[in-house]
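User: Can you predict the 3D structure of Prenyl transferase? Sequence below.
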Amino acid sequence: MNKMIKLPIKAIENEFQSLNNNLYKMIAVDNAILYSAAEQLFKAGGKRIRPIILLNIAKSTSQHNPTSIEQKRLAEITEIIHTASLVHDDIIDDCDTRRGVNTVHNLFNNKVAVLAGDFLFAQSSWYLANLNNLEVVKIISKIIIDFAEGEIRQGTKSFNYNISMEEYIEKSFYKTASLLACSCKATVMLSNNIDIKKNNFYLYGKHIGLAFQVIDDILDIISTSKELGKPAGLDLKNGNLTASLIFTLDKKEKLYRLINQEFQFVNNVNEAIDTIKQTNSIQKAKDIAIEHMQLAIHIIERENLSHENKKNLLLICYYILNRFN
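Assistant: Sure. Here are the predicted structure tokens for Prenyl transferase:
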């Protein structure tokens, strides 16, 4: 696959340029420490994949109208919700760096990081309420519930080699795909275009979200810390058993010993990664991601969208798949 695949920004360039400035304005707060902690997250950068997806959906589905103020704000709200979830994830996973910079709890402490995450969730909720659309408030609020559900499911299955592939996919939905599924649907709801089926875009977001998470978990195994911008093998270290490892369990019994030891010895994580790489488990995990992405592609190909808009939504799919090629 072509390494030069890029996220489609040209059609939404004006909206995207204002996004970062608006994010800083939205997290403004009088408390210097809290603001500094929140600002640290946005300074770390990131590709802003989620708002790019939403702004492209808004452009594709808004009938003869420019992207509305509400749709732009929803894209910003979604990025703040995602960022808030990362703060809490980093505390739970004891992750010292993200995107190559110090995490909030590493730079400050756990208390400040928890408060910073809570603050971002609260800010996003306030801006969400100001959209004055009860149905959108309901569907976006579910994302935060799903985040908690996903973390609990992950925590209760920590170092548990009896986890099934179905349980792994369900957890991945709650932790990642729910945000994309719900926010994609909400963006269409705000377009007020009766010719567009909202649930199709819910499914589009769900499938690209699941593919994204499976690929992210593969990268945790096959990439270096420098490439990831965070420690490699962190999922294994924290007992988060992902698709590649689950597939390997049937082939390599030594993994059971390493999991029972909770990867507590220095070389345990590297030993597990080497064991996984000796099988076709990484490819089988990739196949799951490809299957979900094919479903997302099929949904968009059937939609009654302009050629250019359809191409941009498909490019997003190919970009996400291209992350591990």
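The chain has a mean pLDDT of 88. Residues 13-324 form a domain with the Farnesyl Diphosphate Synthase fold (CATH 1.10.600.10).
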